[in-house]
Amino acid sequence: MTNQTSTTKEKKPMTLSTKILIGLFSGILLGLFLGEYAGHLEIVGDAFIGLLQMTVLPYIVFSLIVNIGRLSLEEGRKLIVQGIKFLSLLLAIGIAVVLILPFAFPEWKSANFFSTSFVTPPPEVDFLKLYIPSNPFFSLAESKVPAVVLFSILVGIGVMQINGKDKEVLLNSLDAFNKALNQVNKIVVKLTPAGVFAIAASTAGTMTLDELGKMQAYLLTYLVAVLILTFWVLPMLITACTPFKYKDVFKFTKATLITIFATGKIIVVLPQLIEDLKSLYAEYNLDTDENNAGTDILMPLAYPFPNLGTLAIFVFVPFAAWFVGNPITLSNTPMFVGATLLSSFVAPVTGIPFMLDLLEIPKDMFQLFVVSTVFTDRVRVVLGAMHLITLTLLTLSSTNGFFKLRKRKITMGLAVTVVLFIVTLVPLRLFLSYSLKDVYQNDKVIANMQLIHKLVPFKVLPSASPNPTKLLEYESILDRIKRRGIVRVGFYEDEIPFSYFNARGELVGFGIDMAHELGSALDVEIEFVPITVGHMPEELQNDNFDIVMSDIFMSSQYSAELSFSKPYLDVTMALVVRDQADQFKTFDKASEVSSFKIGYFERKDVAQKFLNYFPQAEAVRLDSVNQFFNQTDSLRLDGLLTSAERGAALTLLHPEYQIANPLPYKITLPLAYPVGNKDENMANFVTNWIEVNKKDGTISRFYDYWILGDDHLRKEEHWSVIKDVLHWVD
Fold it and tell me: What are the Solute-binding protein family 3/N-terminal domain coordinates in residue numbering (predicted)?
């Protein structure tokens, strides 16, 4: 009888990559099953990301110091000079690719609800703290990646110049500490399946279909870059500058590249990659001691430095900026390039959050990046390995005398590269333009918003007319409201988002919700009375309405004519301009414009405040904002003067426009409610009522919903199995 032990095959343990894939797909399925309920797993995903980031910066610091410090000045000078030269060449190629890839992102309509970022200048970047490690511990604590990298390189160069036993003791100690950090990282990596499961579940459960659609723009463009760089650009450089042929480069490295793709790690097969290159040398009778020893030194030394795989992944940053509708401007491009170069020294899990923060892109975009890494990390490491192969071969060929530049091959290679990017990115842009053509939904969102509260019975009158119940002698507005049981509220029909008719023909808005709150407080019904444009003060004086609850700016001129409540909200003066009208983004640029014309609605006194800063400008009174968005040959306007809060809502309906704040200061204007008959009792009552609504959070809730759009976003329903298929929950 055969020994059962010898015949029974041992079951192989499941690989980490398999576990990660299982965690990914299981998380997606759970997210689709639970929908928004899976969002509670986000905290688990955030904890996992924090653990991943924990050891990255210390590991990179000591790795750079040790690898650079081990070289002697005599042995490494030429190798380092040539290595830096070719590394710079490869990184320049990478930066060019990162700048070219966003051209695949199509122009698409994008506008967002109001944000304070529309009217407040971004904080100035302190480039000294960003790049100069005057306090390395502060740079580490604040994740100032460029400064940390520069500090590590300089310390490594300093260690390189130390001789004797002290150097070895220092390097061995740092190396041992780095190994300890690596062990900690391995422990964290074992949690990857669980972390990916939590992130995938929370993302799949809360991500909308339009977000999934836009994510394809990043994945497809990055895949195009990896394929072209890995299988054409880098092999072309090798064959054009060294004796090695294209087929032989992949003949000796393909098995290792496949292993790298399967494991998602370069470092685990770095020794095998070194042996592959030595076998390649032998094929060409170049397996000299200099080449073999140079490979042993150069490959591990180059590993901590940026590679094209890591650098190209930073295309996620311009993608994220495009995704949120605020693409990186030409003026920000130098900062983006410089920060990307130095941030590429570290793992993307550290560099990407830093870049998002630097360019003021919402940090929650990082969640999308983490989910995408399950796919991108596998192709990223293949490109990274090809980068190491190319850097090593070019550096050693130049150092050891078998470098030969074939200009004809380089010229042909450049031409083919240009053609490859054109024939891939142009169709990709067309495809994305088609697939994303219906992705913009914010115009439908604001057009379909409904009142939060419908607290009292109401009706909307077709036109303005005096109150049919006349005031009695010595009777106040407030007393008549209580006697009649009705409050008449004046409103403008097109003051989005304060008072307007939605797609269903319902009167909605911030002011309309507030009117229902007022009716509830008075325990009366409401008659909404439309205001005739240009005649609000006289209609109020003619007793057409008891109170006006659209967005009325309070000013000294109006205060002399009308009685106002206490302000309930401060808004910021701004312009609505075309997306391409960059000259109105700052005061300096707008001041240089020889002349321009703006439109304003109703308030000439407010327009004059703006013209005080721009004497070369002209203001034209409009009867409606539609005159601005539907301009004729006889009326050409460069901007619409309004509040930034209202302007942001208008851009939702007209996403080809944007908010600009060209004023040298942030000029705020208070919104208040004018009351009829200059009735101080009514004004005082409304003032006290406003104070109560501020304290109990009512005004804040209405502001979040109508101005910021937050309440809508929080309540947006997502498809799930338990809700839409099984109907277990509402």
Answer: 486-710
